Amino acid sequence: MDGLHLTADLRGCDPGLAAMTDAAALRAMCVGAVEAAGLGAVGELFHVFPPPGGVTGVVLLAESHLAVHTWPELGAVTLDVYVCNYGGNNSARAQALLEALVVAFGAREAHRQSLRRGALAAPVVRAA
């Protein structure tokens, strides 16, 4: 179950950008970026909060997930991309997806993190 989990905390995003407050705009941005990265969307859910009206969105991927949370009142966005590499190495696709969204939000600052998941140093043996 080798996987790659990427996150980005964005600051300095334009609060007037439609994707910051409009679920349909955020959905279009996310689904377009997923398709462009060569990943497979299998489900989605987007929710708008009451004013100041940030949006939370999740795209379920055949490879795992994309989650996005916007805070227009702070000009901030958090991104979360996780892919498993079970059937093939999807790491480059995950990186492309994250970078496309960082660019789309026009962030002045982006703090990125990367975490390898599921790679065990040695198998766990349980006594019977």
UniProtKB/TrEMBL annotation:
GO terms for molecular function: adenosylmethionine decarboxylase activity. GO terms for biological process: spermidine biosynthetic process. It is an enzyme of class 4 (lyase). Pfam families: AdoMet_dc. It comes from the Bacteria. The keyword Lyase applies. One of its GO terms (cellular component) is cytosol. Its EC number is 4.1.1.50. Its cofactor is pyruvate. The keyword DNA-binding does not apply. Keywords: Autocatalytic cleavage, Decarboxylase, Lyase, Polyamine biosynthesis, Pyruvate, S-adenosyl-L-methionine, Schiff base, Spermidine biosynthesis, Zymogen. InterPro entries: AdoMetDC_C, AdoMetDC_fam_prok, AdoMetDC_N, S-AdoMet_deCO2ase_core, S-AdoMet_deCOase_pro-enz. NCBIfam families: SAM_DCase_Bsu. This is Adenosylmethionine decarboxylase.
